[in-house]
């Protein structure tokens, strides 16, 4: 069992690594790679692991690929705000066991990627990174090519679909606990504009929520060295600006979209968010998960299993 100091050193070395990901050849699984995979709980039997950096807009992004021996398609997977790929272990393990190649990356300012911690000036920066990476990957990997995003990751996927002019007719898109508005949206907005009167305040304290009924996950998250204890004010401003932008986007009439949402989610204003999504996407269906909180990928059983079964049912259509 490794101690916190040991894993912190491992994560720092991986974050500073300049090794570029090779999508043809798996990464050499040295001690640091093995410790990372073990610490975050990935099941790697018969899985080829590719890991390394790619540079977008002068920022090095950590990219991960998990490839089973026989792949029936490709899943592009995005994590949420204040999270990283390590927290997607249950979903990645499930998808690779189902036969999918999974490609994911740490958002800028998250996990092992570069960038100001947990911050962004414009939401479009998230979207541009995703668009560049996904355009390259779709040329390399077998169809079908599906996209899954959780929370802020789902918001990035939504913006990509609503703002991008390229066709997405043959792909499926899954939005899990999607962020548009947070639970206490108006309070957050008023607080943001109030704090802006005091330019010396650049961040607010983060309070860890009980966003899952999985106690082991909550404990692990509280001890994860890649977590942060503050939320930058500029990130809140970027989300407020993005909310104005999404209202102006035209309706998407082609993309095949599934929303999976827990009905006990206290992180996002899920009823409002679903109503907006239903207005913006013609071909959308919704699966509500009873007793599900925000971290549906990391829920306790049977909630997590129900979530995954809804996902598999949609992908298999």
Topology as a string of helices (H) and strands (E): HHEEEHEHEHEHEHEHEHEH
The low-pLDDT segments are none
**Which structural category do the helix and sheet elements fall into?**
alpha/beta
* Share of helix, binned: 25-40%
Estimated radius of gyration: 19 Å
State the name of the first-level CATH class: Alpha Beta
CATH fold type: Rossmann fold
CATH architecture: 3-Layer(aba) Sandwich
Number of domains: 1
Task: Name the overall outline.
Answer: globular
Query: How confident is the prediction overall: mean pLDDT?
Result: 96
Strand arrangement within the widest β-sheet reads 1-2-4-3-5-6-9-10
Strand tally is: 10
* N-end to C-end Cα span: 42 Å
Main sheet characteristics: 8 strands, mixed
Quickly list its features.
10 helices, 317 residues, eight-stranded mixed beta sheet, Alpha/beta hydrolase, Rossmann fold, alpha/beta, 38% helix, globular, two-stranded antiparallel sheet
């Amino acid at each position: 069992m490794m101690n916190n100091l040991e894993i912190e050193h491992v994560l720092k070395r991986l974050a500073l690594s300049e090794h570029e990901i090779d999508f043809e050849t798996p990464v050499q699984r040295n001690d640091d790679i093995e410790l990372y995979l073990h610490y975050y709980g990935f099941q790697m039997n018969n899985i080829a692991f590719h890991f390394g950096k790619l540079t977008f807009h002068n920022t090095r992004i950590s990219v991960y690929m998990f490839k089973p021996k026989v792949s029936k398609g490709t899943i592009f997977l995005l994590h949420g705000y204040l999270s990283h790929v390590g927290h997607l272990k249950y979903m990645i393990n499930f998808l690779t066991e189902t036969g999918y190649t999974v490609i994911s990356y740490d958002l800028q300012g998250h996990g092992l990627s570069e960038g100001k911690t947990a911050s962004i000036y414009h939401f479009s920066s998230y979207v541009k990174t995703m668009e560049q990476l996904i355009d390259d990957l779709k040329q390399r990997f077998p169809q079908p090519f599906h996209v899954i995003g959780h929370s802020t990751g789902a918001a990035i996927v939504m913006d990509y679909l609503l703002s991008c002019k390229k066709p997405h007719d043959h792909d499926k898109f899954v939005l899990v606990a999607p962020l548009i508005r947070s639970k206490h949206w108006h309070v957050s907005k008023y607080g943001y504009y109030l704090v802006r009167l005091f330019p010396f305040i650049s961040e607010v304290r983060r309070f860890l929520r009980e966003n899952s009924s999985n106690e082991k996950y909550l404990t692990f998250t509280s001890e994860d060295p890649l977590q942060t204890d503050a939320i930058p004010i500029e990130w809140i401003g970027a989300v407020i600006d993005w909310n104005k932008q999404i209202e102006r986007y035209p309706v998407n009439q082609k993309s095949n979209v599934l929303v999976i949402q827990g009905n006990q989610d206290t992180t996002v204003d899920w009823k409002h968010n679903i109503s907006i999504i239903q207005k913006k996407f013609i071909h959308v269906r919704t699966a509500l998960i009873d007793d599900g909180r925000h971290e549906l990928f990391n829920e306790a059983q049977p909630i997590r299993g129900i979530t995954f079964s809804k996902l598999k049912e949609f992908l298999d259509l």
